[in-house]
Amino acid sequence: MPKKFTIITPYHFGPERPDDYARLMRSLRSSLREVEGKGRVILVANGTEKEAGDPSKIMQDLSVAGKTQIDVVKLRNSVGSVGGLNAGIEGALATRNIPGDDEWIGKVDSSAVLEPGWLDQIQKRIETEKADATFVRQLFEEDVNTIYSDGHTLMEGCTWDVNYGEKRTSANVVPDGAFPCLGACMFRRQLVEQIVREYGNFVCENLAHYGSCTDVALRAMAVNPSVRFVHCPDAVAHKRRPIKNDRDIAISQLLSAKFYYLDKEKSAQERIESKSDRYKEIFVDIGRETIRRAGKPYSLTGKDAPKATSQIDAKWGV
What we know:
This protein has helices at 18-35, 55-62, 80-93, 118-128, 189-199, 212-223, 246-260, 265-273, 276-279, 283-294; strands at residues 3-11, 39-46, 70-75, 102-108, 112-114, 133-140, 143-149, 152-155, 158-161, 184-188, 229-239. By secondary structure, it is α/β, with parallel strands linked by helices. The chain has a single domain, classed as Alpha-Beta Complex (Spore Coat Polysaccharide Biosynthesis Protein SpsA, Chain A). The strands form two sheets. Strands 1, 2, 3, 4, 5, 6, 7, 10 and 11 form a nine-stranded mixed sheet that branches. The protein has a two-stranded antiparallel ribbon with strand order 8-9. The N and C termini lie far apart (38 Å).
């Protein structure tokens, strides 16, 4: 069965941030190289009224023959990283799938650059495994011998990067229950469509930057209990070392406890309180922002958040 691939890359800046812009150019060129003859890239300009650069300028600066492989989605106002992904998903699903095609839709961050053969390795994997989604190996761009993420695990409401900081050459094990990191991944179109039908969009937009990978994984498991997330270590992306935001990490953990578990909000709150030195000055702000985000409807269809099972979180899952 012919396979088609769609890569979504949102961005929210322009040439005035030269390092980020240069990395975006490298990211797009690597994605265009991978999808040549196999699909397309959807470029999401996330907030053209403010910081997102003009996509026509980006197309001009790319100076590649593969511009016809790029579809542009322009958002006047920034809707955050998860909103940008949802907009890209809408753009991808707006094109009807050709009968007989096996389409895969994924995301590559503007800060991620794909190694040559990335899609070839994914295609080999999904042809030999009964996969519904694939997650890949991400290495630090400035140290390509060190792993940033081999996907994620969920433990007591906290999302962790698998093999973070481990050497690329080590005998790295990816545990059962691991799921995709949205920094560089692929999902079967049918699964994406199932999630969007159930919840109205691909990922909840109430999240504070962190938590989107977990939300998508739990949604996928809810709409398809037999879903299979398959790791593809030979498909490699180089990732900018992220700057962690303690405030958003704490908010994501509190929202996770509220959305996906039963009677775990107090435990999550006590965990944040126990790190008083880390959160002292922003503790009140964390609580207020968590309440504000949690007060919004979880989904566009009115569907409640899925619950984490013991399959994905052995300690807190139900």
